From TrEMBL:
<dbReference type="InterPro" id="IPR012677">
    <property type="entry name" value="Nucleotide-bd_a/b_plait_sf"/>
</dbReference>
<keyword id="KW-0694">RNA-binding</keyword>
<feature type="domain" description="RRM">
    <location>
        <begin position="25"/>
        <end position="101"/>
    </location>
</feature>
<dbReference type="GO" id="GO:0003723">
    <property type="term" value="F:RNA binding"/>
</dbReference>
<protein>
    <recommendedName>
        <fullName>RRM domain-containing protein</fullName>
    </recommendedName>
</protein>
<dbReference type="InterPro" id="IPR035979">
    <property type="entry name" value="RBD_domain_sf"/>
</dbReference>
<dbReference type="InterPro" id="IPR000504">
    <property type="entry name" value="RRM_dom"/>
</dbReference>
<dbReference type="Pfam" id="PF00076">
    <property type="entry name" value="RRM_1"/>
</dbReference>
Length: 114
């Protein structure tokens, strides 16, 4: 792990933009198979920790290939990124990354409402 602490990925130089212990951690999931549902995502990702929310963009399920996951802790989110980024699912290589604070600000109200 980096010198920043246990909530940082090893390759990160500055993780303070998303490393906030005690706050939910946001993960962006990309390159999903078309037609993947929120339930499909929950089924796989709940095994990696406390999964609080799964958000898929509104629209035609046959055109959506990404999701935002909200985990209860930074360590759970990091575990997902380290385990599944660049892994193969449905013959597609998944993109799994931590989102920084700037990206997650617009989602703060949404997570309180659901």
């Amino acid at each position: 792990m980096s010198s920043q602490g246990s909530c940082c990925l090893p390759e990160e130089d500055n993780c303070q933009s998303h490393c906030q212990p005690g706050r939910p951690a946001f993960v962006q999931l990309g390159n999903l198979a078309l037609g993947t549902s929120a339930e499909d995502v929950k089924t796989v990702f709940q095994d990696y920790g406390q999964l609080l929310h799964v958000f898929l963009p509104v629209g035609d399920p046959q055109t959506i290939n990404r999701a935002i996951l909200v985990f209860g802790s930074q360590s759970d989110a990091i575990k997902v990124v380290q385990s599944l980024n660049n892994s193969l699912a449905d013959d597609l290589i998944l993109s799994v990354r931590l989102m920084d604070e700037q990206e997650t600000k617009p989602l703060a109200l949404l997570t309180r409402m659901t």
